[in-house]
Amino acid sequence: MSTINDVAERAGVSVTTVSRVLNNRGYISEKTRQNVYRAMQELQYQPNEIARSLLRKQSNLIGLIVPEISHPFFAEFANAVEFHAYQYGCKLLLCNSHRDPDKEREYIEMMRRHRVDGIIMGSHTLEIEDYRNLNNPIVTLDRRIDGIPFVASDNERGGERAARLLIAKGCRKLAHICGNLRLDMLANRRTYAFERTAQESGVWFTTLQTDMNVFDQSEYDRIIAELFEHHPDIDGVFATSDIIAAFVLKWCRKLGKQVPGDIRIVGYDDVRMASWASPGITTIRQPIAEMGRTAVELIRKQMDGEPYEMENVFPIELVERETT
């Protein structure tokens, strides 16, 4: 069986250089890197990942816990995290909590056993103390916890722009559909900004919240059905996700309402399906790929003792399509 010394001799470099290539540490010229890879292939050398992990106290694994991987936002976020983790020489351990606290704790314990280098928390079912008791580098998504860096879009600006667009288009009776505001999420700022802007403009509005299971699509149907039953003359809707906006569009078709003739719709996220829908959904774009990249960078900076920003808030962009 070949050893790291054999690889170094075949590549014409030092053992230290081979180790740096394997661990993706320090500057290595592309020519040297390719020589090492070629030698490894010729010798069929397989590094002992467990031994390497124990030696350098790193596993090159990053954990990501999300509440609902089937939701397009979390699917696209996970895709971005995996891509950028791989660029750093890391693999992704993806866990789907389904907003179950016991399941989320089990996943955290599993990550500890696997010695993950850090955890990106996209699911926020657990109490704050559960996060504080972790010894790993942590990044939260769309949640502020003292002492832990987070990534989020400018939710407040997003809610304000959605309201201003609908009002500018002539809407005078607005509805806002959001997740449950009892959840301590930065996304709640979308709601507060929307309501404040509508109130300052003297425009009537109503806000409808989901129950605590914010990803229950049958709940979306119930809320939207009640909305049109009690307020059939609603002429503008802001939904805090493109998925909810798509459900509103579905109900408009069902009730014979013309979009945007009778009612205008704005979503949030700009996941890919927003542009695939017919008509295309106007939405507030948050830079999902950039947020995923930054989450990975924050893990690596904490590991390497580099300075990092605690609050990483990304600008939003209004993407106007056919629903407005």
Automatic annotation (TrEMBL):
Coiled coil: none
Record has Transit peptide as a keyword: no
All copies of domain HTH lacI-type, residue ranges: 2-56
Superkingdom to which the source organism belongs: Bacteria
GO molecular-function terms, A-Z: DNA binding
Record keywords, A-Z: DNA-binding, Repressor, Transcription, Transcription regulation
Matching Pfam families: LacI, Peripla_BP_3
InterPro entries per UniProt: HTH_LacI (IPR000843), LacI/GalR-like_sensor (IPR046335), Lambda_DNA-bd_dom_sf (IPR010982), Peripla_BP_I (IPR028082)
Key word Repressor present: yes
Protein name: LacI family DNA-binding transcriptional regulator
Species this protein is from: Paenibacillus thailandensis
